[in-house]
Amino acid sequence: MLDQSSNMVVSVDGDRIKNRPPAARLCVLDIADDPDSLATHYRLSENSDRIVYVSVDAGVYAEDDYCFPSLLLNLLPPFPSGDWNKGHVTKTKERPEPHFAWTKVADFPGITPTWHPGHFEFNQLTICHKLMPNVAEASHPELGEVIAKYARFEWEIASYQRETEVYNWLDDHHNMGPTFLGHLTECGRAIGFLLQKLQGRHAGVQDLARCEDVVRKLHSLHILHGDLNRHNFLVDEDQVVLFDLETSFRSQDEEKKAEELRELKKELLNDQGNSG
To answer: Smallest Cα–Cα separation from 161: which of 212, 113, 230, 221?
Structure first.
């Protein structure tokens, strides 16, 4: 039902949204389908400062309305007053019009512990370009151009918990990955992190020796990457760096280290064959 790759950011003036003050603005920041409940989940920003999470049952609106933020924002029922950050929209036989079934103040999980002194609120960012649903090129007033990587919804926190920890392991070894600039927060809780934005290209078979050197350095710290492929390297004339560390883990198993190097060679050779 939903094209996850789109993840558009769309703002709609408040006078186009029923019963909202003219000054109010809503933006759909992120969208995700829930295959278990058949609901669609939205991460919304109101007036560029307050972030709320709204789920909408399947069948409340036409199927296309769920996929296009500009349509959805016109159809949502008025936001309930009061203090809340999570709500659910449905309709029933007794109340056939879309309405909020409930709202509440949810205690969302965050990444803990945080180890870096830098903490930057999400609403300080300007998202410039989505690279993936959870990864974006962004601009920060203090840091300039950065890469933001973050959990959009609470069930994604665990993945970024692991990757945040791995960057802590590498904090004294800046030549292996992009610089970790700080934790990305939402209302104080850590939901991801900001990385140095680097220029370069993905690895090819011609870069095998340089990529192997970086991986051996990682292995010397008893860390396995867990998902080595050409897209997890960034190469330029001066350096090769590794990223996408969410599958990395500690290991002193020398055979596993050797196997990871063998798989890297296969990956780069296969990519060469596929590109031909």
So the answer is: 113
Bridge partners for 132 per DSSP: 135
Which among 196, 194, 260, 192 is positioned nearest to 222, based on CA atoms? 260
How far, in Å, CA of 196 to CA of 180, rounded? 7
- In the structure encoding, which two tokens stand for residue 239, read together? 């350096």
Angle at 199 between CA 194 and CA 201, to 5 degrees: 115
Give this prediction's pTM: 0.85
DSSP 8-state symbol, 107:
-
Of 258, 184, 275, 189, residue with least CA distance to 224:
258
pLDDT in tens, 88-127: 999 999 999 999 999 999 999 999 999 999 999 999 999 9
Least Cα distance to 120 among 61, 167, 180, 31 occurs for 180
Which residues of the chain carry a pLDDT beneath 70? Answer: 1-24, 271-276
Pairwise CA distance, residues 196 & 193, whole Å: 10
